[in-house]
Amino acid sequence: MRPNKIAVVGAGTAGLPEAAVLASAPGTDGSPPPRVVVLQRRSPENEWKVDAINAGKSPLGGIEPGVDDLVAAAVGRGTLSASTDLHECRDAQAVLVCVGTDRQGLLPEYGGLMEALGGVAAALKQRPGLTRPLVMIESTVAPSTMQTVIGPYIEGQGLVDGRDLMLGHSPRHVRRGRAVDDLRGQTRLVSGLRAETPVTAASFYRRFLTRGRILVTSSLTAEVAHTLASAWEDVRHAFASEIARHCERLDVDYLTLRDQVNDVLRWPDAMRPSDAMFGGDALPIPAGGVGGPCLPRDGILLWWRALEAGHLSRNSIILAARAVNDASPAATV
Question: What's the pTM value of the predicted model, to 2 decimals?
């Protein structure tokens, strides 16, 4: 896929780095970088981001090394711009929705995402010509959301997946301070509700994923894999916090214990042939709580449908880990 114009919905830590990388990425066939427009909803709190981008400045400040230079260069050559008008996406060949999600108690909170999708749908209904845009949801969503929430919502807006657009899902984790490197070198899950969508999406993402891998899968698998990765991290940190408190009661140096445990877990054997099994240190250094947007949210999203059906409320390791991490700040003081 060789798009001439890409729309990225969301000017935050997920959307802007990706827009800047795309606007700087020539095609593998030598074609110039596409035009990329960053779309940010109009509000007193966020409109300044559009002005900053159009002035060649990153609204993220210095938290993402490399983004400032990419934004300045791309704006200077005319391949990157920003707008508060979602109708700017109506003639884009690819639309990437990078809007944050959350949870309210044990339920997903998709207010911002659905508002953005409503604007995208309204714009695409005015689309000139017969070409179908690729619309990729990059936001974190709970398993089954693409099939039971987003797909029906798009259809309810008068658009048919496969006829009017190709609707897909490609969730990704954003490591603070490493976004540019991750975008070019991470493993990327691409999925869709129809078989042709992830194939087209894979072709699109290969444009800038120069060092990473692309895994084509189903929407449900992508949703589970993404939320499961965060849930595992939440459990790992809760385990470390519990062990650290126990060490304190026993007057054992946790940091020394941690080093020794991690050394043992790196030893290869027949059951564990690679030190990559744990993706780094299995036992982390505990902190006074585990925050950020992902870990407090994703384990709950993973179990959303089970919780909705009344299962797992008492026996879930993932929910117990979240309770441990929620209590960590008070236990640290």
Answer: 0.90
